[in-house]
């Protein structure tokens, strides 16, 4: 699945998906109901990777039922992506989509569907993910719901590890039975996972989906023992932190564009610092009559300002398209910088230039 | 001098349908044509390139909305609506009067113009024929509409005649105020309600003003279909052959087919794009409410054989998206709305292209028969049967 020369610091690698090769570091785009928000697939070049949330494809068994079933199929994705992997909102359950009574046990997991939070058998989730024929599956981990500043006890850590191990075994067995050859990636809590636990699962997985438990993300990024396996950052991080993480050996990161596009902000940065501003807010009245085009698009800034002002959906379409192109170039430049040995210098320049 | 030529390429040997090429400042428009509506200089979620890829040669912007946002000063500064939205094909704008009457409370009409309260600060405003022309000149639309006195279609009595004569007087003021006749075409609007005599008078008066094109207004406002067809039929018989005829506010497929048979060339409506946002797809067999549970896991495209970018299989360069897929997103995510907007806009444009081809090949009657058979089986609506029979087409 993944090959890299490894070593300390930023690394390049080759991720093989569906027989085609993706050079890392690269990014994945998040989706809503199988589509990159606001973009129809004819509107952007193929992204390297996209993630799909199984819960987006859950439907209540009956109008009054709290129980739901997954009906996702690969062909339901309205995506232009070279590779697709599945996630569950449970990966982020303790941070973003917390619901009351969000309690897991060894055999059931709380999913956050459009019908509300409900308990779902882990075996069913494994089957759902594997049967959707994604390019690799990411096993959810057992996570603790912590209030800010609180600490987690040793017993709870042990329990989380035991449970996560069982779930990895279950997913591995499901994959081997129903979709042999499909890579399995383990979700790891970067701060809480012990070296012994990581060693115990290493032979069963093809990569790691790294979730931080606090904001000290960059400092906790390398407890993963096997440096030649794929490392995906599962946290939403800034573009500055992305460079730190890549500098510590992360191979795949989530692009952060939706929140910018939806707020009317166009990203304008690039790794080589050829632009003055990190981003521009097209809601600003200074763009009312600015007919210069935004980046490589054919959209005049005045037009985008008008669309935002008029609350036209085309504004988000245009901005999302543009922002995706900026991020794509950012990662392309990162790969080139690693190749020619200038990554550390350019990353430092980037931070001082835009910060 | 008009910035428009209109050449009839073919006529149906039975009905009044005709195929023509209308040359406008931003390129040719093949008629009969349906013009999608991009109210605020945007066709709901589609980029100008996507609209162009659908084969759209002309679409609408609304003067009232553009007058508010981005405003006339901005339009003057940036060089008009074409430059603003990077659209190098044609634009038609309405006069702004219809929105005032339909959207705004307390709109009052006097000989001077349409009075209304500003939606920004409730201050009294007045849209006059001169102001409407000035706004449309700033927008730079290829076809601009006169300000007319709009009354509800079902209105009867002296108010209808008053509105008709006032529309004629306002046309004269629009012609006088129009600053760019060499690059923008002003269309008059026939009024007169459902009264054939008023319509006849209005046609005569307005034809005498010799505008580059002529619209039939005051319809699609809740009147019965027979009345609608009678007015269109009567008007097209009185209008010159060498000018485009624009039936305003018409968008249902069967209305388009019948209206073409009655001799109309141009149509517009928000229906295909608005209904897309409600999760409805247009097909030759009728509308498809894609949100319904019955389409869960349905692998078929919205319409079998449809060549729109959404339905066309991936192997043929399309997106190859199924009903089951769109059902997941329809009315929940903007992508669902965009996909249905692309499909519905294509459906309307392709319907008109198919109609045109049938006219050129003089098999329009056959097309009409197939169209109604596909959509209504053996029971076409009585109004359509009657209207088509009046122009020698049997369904």
TrEMBL record, chain A:
Keyword line: Transferase
SUPFAM superfamilies noted in UniProt: tRNA-guanine transglycosylase (SSF51713)
Domain tRNA-guanine(15) transglycosylase-like intervals: 10-354
InterPro entries, A to Z: Queuine_tRNA-ribosyltrfase, TGT-like_sf, tRNA_ribo_trans-like
Pfam family membership, one: TGT
Transferase as UniProt keyword: yes
UniProt record, GO biological process: tRNA modification
Keyword check for Transmembrane helix: no
Alphabetized GO MF terms: transferase activity
PANTHER family found in the cross-reference section: QUEUINE TRNA-RIBOSYLTRANSFERASE ACCESSORY SUBUNIT 2
Protein name: Queuine tRNA-ribosyltransferase-like protein
UniProtKB/TrEMBL annotation, chain B:
Documented EC number(s): 2.4.2.64
Catalytic activity: guanosine(34) in tRNA + queuine = queuosine(34) in tRNA + guanine
Cofactor: Zn(2+)
Keywords: Cytoplasm, Glycosyltransferase, Metal-binding, Transferase, tRNA processing, Zinc
Positions of the tRNA-guanine(15) transglycosylase-like domain: 15-374
Enzyme class name: transferase
GO cellular-component term (any): cytosol
Molecular functions per Gene Ontology: metal ion binding; tRNA-guanosine(34) queuine transglycosylase activity
Active site: 94 (proton acceptor), 268 (nucleophile)
GO annotation, biological process: tRNA modification
Alphabetized InterPro entries for the sequence: TGT, TGT-like_sf, tRNA_ribo_trans-like
Its biological purpose: Catalytic subunit of the queuine tRNA-ribosyltransferase (TGT) that catalyzes the base-exchange of a guanine (G) residue with queuine (Q) at position 34 (anticodon wobble position) in tRNAs with GU(N) anticodons (tRNA-Asp, -Asn, -His and -Tyr), resulting in the hypermodified nucleoside queuosine (7-(((4,5-cis-dihydroxy-2-cyclopenten-1-yl)amino)methyl)-7-deazaguanosine). Catalysis occurs through a double-displacement mechanism. The nucleophile active site attacks the C1' of nucleotide 34 to detach the guanine base from the RNA, forming a covalent enzyme-RNA intermediate.
Protein's name in the database: Queuine tRNA-ribosyltransferase catalytic subunit 1
């Amino acid at each position: 699945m993944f090959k890299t020369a490894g070593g300390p610091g930023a690394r390049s690698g080759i991720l093989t998906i569906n027989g085609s090769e993706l050079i890392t570091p690269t990014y994945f785009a998040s989706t809503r109901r199988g589509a990159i928000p606001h973009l129809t697939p004819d509107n952007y070049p193929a992204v390297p990777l996209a993630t799909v949330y199984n819960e987006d494809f859950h439907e209540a068994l009956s109008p009054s039922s709290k129980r739901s079933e997954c009906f996702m199929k690969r062909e339901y994705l309205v995506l232009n992506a070279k590779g697709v992997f599945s996630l569950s909102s449970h990966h982020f359950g303790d941070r973003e989509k917390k619901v009351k009574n969000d309690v897991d046990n060894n055999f059931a997991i709380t999913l956050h569907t459009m019908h509300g939070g409900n308990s779902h058998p882990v075996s069913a989730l494994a089957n759902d993910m594997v049967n959707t024929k994604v390019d690799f599956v990411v096993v959810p981990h057992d996570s603790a719901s912590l209030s800010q500043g609180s600490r987690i006890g040793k017993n709870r850590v042990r329990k989380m590890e035991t449970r996560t191990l069982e779930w990895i075994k279950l997913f591995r067995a499901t994959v081997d039975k129903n979709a042999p050859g499909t890579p399995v990636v383990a979700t790891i809590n970067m701060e809480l996972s012990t070296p012994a636990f990581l060693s115990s699962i290493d032979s069963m997985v093809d990569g790691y989906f790294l979730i931080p438990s606090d904001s000290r993300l960059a400092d906790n990024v390398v407890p993963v023992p096997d440096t030649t396996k794929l490392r995906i950052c599962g946290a939403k991080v800034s573009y500055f932190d992305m460079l730190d993480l890549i500098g510590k050996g992360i191979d795949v990161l989530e692009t952060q564009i939706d929140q910018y596009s939806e707020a009317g902000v166009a990203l304008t940065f690039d790794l080589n610092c050829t632009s003055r501003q990190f981003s521009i807010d097209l809601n600003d009245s200074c763009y009312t009559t600015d007919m210069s085009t935004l980046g490589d698009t054919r959209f005049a800034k005045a037009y985008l300002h008008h669309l935002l002002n008029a609350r036209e959906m085309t504004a988000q379409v245009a901005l999302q398209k543009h922002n995706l192109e900026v991020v794509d170039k950012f990662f392309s430049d990162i790969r080139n910088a690693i190749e020619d040995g200038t990554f550390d210098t350019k990353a430092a320049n980037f931070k001082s230039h835009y910060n | 001098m008009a910035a428009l030529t209109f050449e009839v390429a073919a006529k149906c040997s039975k009905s009044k349908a005709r195929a023509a090429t209308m040359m406008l400042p931003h390129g040719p428009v093949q008629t009969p044509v349906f013009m999608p509506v991009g109210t605020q200089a945007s066709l709901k979620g589609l980029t100008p390139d996507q609209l162009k890829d659908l084969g759209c040669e002309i679409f609408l912007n609304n003067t009232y909305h553009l007058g508010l946002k981005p405003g006339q000063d901005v339009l003057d500064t940036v060089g008009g609506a074409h430059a603003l939205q990077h659209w190098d094909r044609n634009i038609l704008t309405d006069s702004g009067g219809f929105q005032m009457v339909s959207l705004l409370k307390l709109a009052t009409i006097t000989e001077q113009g349409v009075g209304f309260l500003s939606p920004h600060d409730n201050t009294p405003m007045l849209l006059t024929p001169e102001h409407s022309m000035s706004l449309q000149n700033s927008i730079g639309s290829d076809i601009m509409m006169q300000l007319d006195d709009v009354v509800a279609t079902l209105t009867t009595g002296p108010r209808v005649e008053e509105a008709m004569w006032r529309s004629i007087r306002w046309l004269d003021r629009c012609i006088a105020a129009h600053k760019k006749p060499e690059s923008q075409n002003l269309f008059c609007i026939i009024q007169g309600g459902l009264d054939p005599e008023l319509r006849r008078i209005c046609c005569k008066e307005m034809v005498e003003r010799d505008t580059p094109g002529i619209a039939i207004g005051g319809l699609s406002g809740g009147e019965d279909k027979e009345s609608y067809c009678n007015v269109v039929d009567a008007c097209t018989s009185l209008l010159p052959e060498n000018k485009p005829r624009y039936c305003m506010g018409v968008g249902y497929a069967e209305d388009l087919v019948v209206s073409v048979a009655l001799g109309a060339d141009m149509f517009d409506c928000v229906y295909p794009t608005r209904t897309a946002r409600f999760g409805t797809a247009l097909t030759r067999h009728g509308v498809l409410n894609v949100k319904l549970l019955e389409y869960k896991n349905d692998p078929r495209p919205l319409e079998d054989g449809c060549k729109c970018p959404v339905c066309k299989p991936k192997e043929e360069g399309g997106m190859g998206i199924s009903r089951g897929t769109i059902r997941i997103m329809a009315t929940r995510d903007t992508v669902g709305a965009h996909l249905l907007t692309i499909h519905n806009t294509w459906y309307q444009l392709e319907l008109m292209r198919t109609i045109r081809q049938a006219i050129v090949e003089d098999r329009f009657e056959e097309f009409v028969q197939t169209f109604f058979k596909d959509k209504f089986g053996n029971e076409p609506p009585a109004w359509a049967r009657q209207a088509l029979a009046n122009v020698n087409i049997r369904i």
